[in-house]
Amino acid sequence: MYDVVVIGAGPAGSTATRYLAKKGLKVCIIDKDSFPRDKPCGGGFSTSLIEEFPYLRKRIDDFLKGIARIGVLHSPNRRVVLQGKVDMALVLRIDFDNVLFECALEQGVDSYIGTRAKRIKFHQDYSEIELASGTSIKGAVVLGTDGVSSIVAREAGLQRRWPKTNITACRVVEVPARNEEILDRYTDDLIYHFYANLGGLPGYGWIFPKQDTINIGLGIVGTHAQGLPRLFHSFVRYLKRENLLMKNADLSSVRGGLVPTGGPVKKSYVDRCLLVGDAAGMVSPLTGGGIAYAMKAARFASMVLVSTYDESLPTENALWQYERMWRNEFGNEFKEQLLAQKLFTGPFTDLLFEIGRRDKQIQEMVSESMSESSDSELDIKKLLLRTLLVCLRGSLRR
Ligand SMILES: Cc1cc2nc3c(=O)[nH]c(=O)nc-3n(C[C@H](O)[C@H](O)[C@H](O)COP(=O)(O)OP(=O)(O)OC[C@H]3O[C@@H](n4cnc5c(N)ncnc54)[C@H](O)[C@@H]3O)c2cc1C
Predict the structure, then answer these.
(1) Which of the residues 54, 213, 270, 398 has an alpha carbon 20 to 30 A from that of 229?
(2) Residues 320 and 349 in one domain
């Protein structure tokens, strides 16, 4: 029997597996896909994540496809542009997730790859995981790192299906491009673009220029998702018109994906089971970024599991510490970003941009917070106060 069975080998699962095995626990990792596998994604996150997980530095050449130094944020009517300095690492998920997976395997863990976890039976003192291949695995603890449609969340009774309001449906494509085609359009600062509420629908669009590819994506909140194919099409047309994309761009590899953008689950643990990453809804409601949260929460989960390992069995009483740790670290960020999401997807978004255009401080606050590279959470109260101040100043000058 394993000490911990990790279901899902994305950033959350591979990170947790590596830490747990390094501390001497008997771990196995399961994924329905074979590796290297490509997850539909923008592939942008703060460069500080690489410092926080130092073992990544050694493998940096295997995954880094550039660093964006400037972020540009476009208003819904595209008349106002806010710009800020950022440090966003750009990767292809096929490489990045594979590096994380290999770092986990290096610790000598068992892996069950290319087979789906079909059913989980929680018994009194162990769990039994039934795989699609017919194999059955037993573990003292189950780690649910199986992403947005988590079977673990469902079977543990922690989260059923996400309501449409809490999901963003995306289309994304990695467009192959020559170096000069990228530099001409995005300079060697690899300027990235973020579009609020394209077509007046709640959501966002992005361009992440990388080495050899330009990543184009669009996400719309689930309640409006039927408009996604049409809007993606007109987004691409617009980008071509603006010369942000080549006229002959190869869009043959467009893919769909879901992100939980309605804030985290109410509870991320039960007896002998934890949820981590997208399975627990740990994603920025504002930008849809979740790689960093997944990896940081995975480390918290591992720390708690290692510390409770000597106890008989990690029950809720011990595992709540995991929830305390991640909520302390980024629980408030999710709350603030949810509030900001409401503001930025509301009817006054263009007006907010107009006000922001007049003030450098607002420009920096907004632009940096919209980027995956921001480590400072968006202080929504400060932003609103600053906006009021700019309005007041403007009216006094009249
Ligand atoms: C279009 C799009 C763009 C995004 N862009 C960004 C971005 O630029 N930056 C950013 O930080 N985040 C981005 N995200 C979010 C980011 O992809 C996730 O937050 C991140 O992947 C979460 O990691 P995870 O390990 O929790 O889940 P995942 O990466 O989804 O990994 C879950 C794993 O579980 C496996 N799995 C699922 N079900 C089962 C099962 N039953 N049995 C076995 N295995 C299973 C899957 O195959 C998968 O490998 C984007 C998401 C989408 C959809």
Answers:
(1) 213
(2) no
- 278 with 263: CB under 8 angstroms? no
Tokens representing 179 are 């170096």
What local confidence, expressed as pLDDT, does residue 15 receive? 98
* Closest CA to ligand 1's atom 8: 42
Per-residue model confidence (pLDDT) at position 390 = 67
Number of structural domains the chain divides into: 3
Q: State which amino acid sits at residue 299.
A: R
The response to whether residue 8 sits with its C-beta less than 6 Å from ligand 1 reads yes
CB 74 within 8 A of CB 152: no
- Whether 131 lines ligand 1, by a CB cut-off of 6 Å, is no
Alpha helices, H only, 53-130: 55-58, 93-105
Tell me the two tokens of residue 102.
């290999």
- Indicate the residue among 260, 287, 319 that finishes a domain: 260
Q: What distance in Å separates the CA atoms of residue 177 and residue 249, rounded to the nearest whole number?
A: 8
Distance, CA of 227 to CA of 207 (rounded, Å) = 20
Q: Is 155 in the pocket of ligand 1 (CB under 6 A)?
A: no
Which of 29, 274, 291 has most ligand 1 atoms within 8 Å of its beta carbon, as the pocket-test mutant? 291
Whether residues 16 and 26 share a domain: the answer is yes
- pLDDT value for 316: 83
Distance 115 CA to ligand 1 centre (A): 17
Cβ neighbours of 248 (radius 10 Å): 6
Contact of 12 with 256, CB cutoff 8 Å: no
Q: Which of 308, 331, 354 is the last residue of a domain?
A: 331
Collect all residues with Cβ–Cβ distance below 8 Å to 123 and sequence separation of at least 6. none
Domain limits for position 375: 343-397
* pLDDT at 186 (0 to 100): 98
Ligand 1, pocket-test mutation among 46, 53, 259, 375, most atoms within 8 A of CB: 259
pLDDT in the model for residue 397: 59
CA dist list (Å): 370 to 34, 109, 309 = 33, 37, 39
Give the closest residue (by CA) to ligand 1 atom 33. 8
| Residues 181 and 197 grouped into a single domain | yes
User: Is residue 269 helix, strand or coil?
Assistant: strand
Closest CA to 284 of 353, 213, 194: 194
Contact criterion met (CB below 8 Å) for 218 and 168: no
